[in-house]
Amino acid sequence: MAEIKAGSVGIMGGTFDPIHYGHLVAAEAAREAFSLDSIIFVPAGIPPHKDEKEVTPARHRYLMTLLAIMSNPYFQISRVDLDRGRVTYTVDTLTDLRKELPPDANMYFITGADAILEILSWKEPERVLSMAEFIAVTRPGYGLDRLSKALGPLYEEFQDRIHILEVPPVGISSTDIRRRLAEGRSIRYLVPETVLTYINNQGLYGVKGER
Ligand code: NAP
Question: Mean per-residue pLDDT for 48-59?
Answer without folding.
Answer: 84
